Amino acid sequence: MQVDEALRGRLAAAIAARFDDQIEATRRLVAIPSLRGAEGPALDLMADLMRQRGLAVDDWTIAADELRHLAGWGPLETPSAAVRSVVGTRQGTGDGRSLILQGHIDVVPAGPLDMWRHPPFDPVVEGDWMYGRGACDMKSGMIAILCALDALDAVGLTPKGRLHVQSVVEEESTGLGALATLARGYRAEACLIPEPTGGRLNRAQVGVLWFRLRVRGRPAHVAYAGDGANAIMAAYHLLQALHGLELAWNERAKTATHFGDLDHPINFNAGIIKGGDWASSVPAWCDVDCRIAVLPGWSLADCRAEIERTVAEAAKHHDFLREHPPELVWSGFIAEGHSFQNATVEAVVGRAAASVYGVNTVPERIMTGLTDTRFYDLYYGIPAFCFGPSGEWIHGFDERVDLRSVEQLTLFLALFIAEWCGVEAG
Q1: Which of 34, 132, 339, 350 is deepest in the core (most CB within 10 A)?
Q2: Sequence-separated contacts (24+) of 259-266 with Cβ below 8 Å
Q3: What confidence tens digit (pLDDT) does each residue in 55-87 have?
Q4: How far apart, in whole angstroms, are the C-alpha atoms of residue 259 and residue 266?
């Protein structure tokens, strides 16, 4: 069914009437420091919220290695090496189309706490903004899914199609949470992920490769530095070579679909560096964790080989590394880029967006990060897209989400569910 303006008004009123409760639920979720390996309490809360709404909850844990054979797998490096997921299902009442609504509850580290204006896990609301790690990316979107279902219930409508509300982990580092739900057998005719897109349709996103450079030098007293080999400085030599690869890939990107008009869509980052043991000793070791983007359609195998060649070639031009080559370890994301195109889904998105945002054409976003949509579309034939709220400073200090945009998103989700799945009085 296409939603008329009368129903739109009723849904908007239902959301507005409960929006204070929605803010509080979001605050509760943001207050949980669901860092990698510590997501359990946040998953517990999501499972409770799903049960309160009558969803049938499936809560399970799978060993990461059991996913190794699946397309899109990336190595998980935690002591537990396990992935827990929570899925709430509403079976639907008729023959409507099925839908997956997914959000991730894992967040990235906050960094030095004294550099935040507000403590990252003590969410604060100022005006239309909620501050806190994960408030924007993407706990507000996760709660909005549940509140969209509340709005439909409040106006007496039940979706005909089957709904799976999925709360996953590992989105920020491997994507194995989404992959675990697919391994479990969850399928639908579309997947909507309310990542923060600023009310835009995510048209395309990069893929990502994570790797670790392991450089081993030769220790010596710094008074006799020439007798040693400085592993930290040797690692810097390799990083300069990888920066050159980044520049070359950005030249290649200038002719790429969707990304050709972007300035510098390929970003290389040396994100973690550890090395040395003593300020007066030439460091004998250095490990650097790195990330680089790849574009949709680029072969991951070819890109990995090019990275390996770049590091090997740089080592040949270094006096110590020539005889003591570095080790390169693939340490997380091994993810392809993804672009979205589905006329049937986009027609429903367009009508919901026109009703909520007053746009004739849905604005698009070309993303230089990545999301879980790739698993569904590339490997399982499920059209998957992101559409979510507005915010600022994700992965940075004072991350915040625009609460007015969250309210708009909740209405968008309710309208999209109503038309995509179909609804009936009940």
Answers
A1: 132
A2: 259/204, 259/206, 259/295, 259/366, 262/366, 262/368, 265/206, 265/293, 265/295, 265/366, 265/368, 266/206, 266/292, 266/293, 266/294, 266/295
A3: 999 999 999 999 999 999 998 887 668 999 999
A4: 9
pLDDT at residue 80, as a whole number = 63
**pLDDT at residue number 262:** 96
Nearest residue to 275 (alpha-carbon basis) of 353, 213, 367: 213
- Distance, C-alpha 46 to centroid of its chain: 18
Helix (H) or strand (E) holding 420: helix 403-421
Residue that the structure tokens 């979720």 belong to: 29
d(CA 327, CA 324): 9
3 three-state secondary structure: coil
pLDDT surpassing 80 at residue 410: yes
Domains in the chain with CATH codes: 5-205+338-425 (3.40.630.10), 207-335 (3.30.70.360)
CA 300/CA 288 separation, integer angstroms = 21
Please tell me the distance from the alpha carbon of residue 162 to that of residue 178, in angstroms, as a whole number: 18
Q: What is the pLDDT of residues 30-60, one digit of tens each?
A: 999 999 999 999 999 999 999 999 999 999 9
Do the beta carbons of residue 238 and residue 215 sit within 8 Å?
yes
